[in-house]
Design goal:
about 120 residues, mainly alpha, about 0% strand
């Protein structure tokens, strides 16, 4: 995927780290001469995939820092601003992309997500 933030289906066991892990695997399998056909988006190259992966990892680290610091969900609203123009206009909008990470990170830190999250669904 190179056109949107990822859809993380928490209710089916999906997690944000899975996208980063798969992106790392793909990056390890290709070189600059390869063309990558994503499930969503235009034909891409390794640099495109790396940019998407780095965006995911950066956002993930920012969300985790907020959770570790005891911040509430409201605190993460601006964490994706630098990528919203590029990746926030397709299927997964910025607010949904951020909100999907929040309960995932909280669960991995041993906490329960805030009220309003039912099985990871919004």
């Amino acid at each position: 995927m190179t056109v949107s933030y990822p859809f993380v289906d928490l209710s089916s066991g999906g997690n944000f780290d899975g996208y980063i892990t798969v992106a790392d695997k793909v990056l390890g399998m290709v070189d600059e001469s390869y063309k990558i056909i994503p499930g969503h988006g235009a034909l891409s190259v390794k640099a495109d995939r790396k940019g998407w992966r780095d965006m995911l990892a950066t956002i993930r680290a920012r969300v985790k820092k907020q959770v570790d610091g005891g911040k509430a969900l409201d605190a993460i609203q601006k964490l994706t601003a630098e990528w919203d123009e590029k990746w926030g206009k397709a299927f997964i909008k910025p607010d949904r992309g951020r909100m999907a990470q929040w309960p995932d990170v909280k669960r991995r830190c041993g906490e329960r997500p805030e009220v309003g999250w039912r099985g990871g669904r919004m």
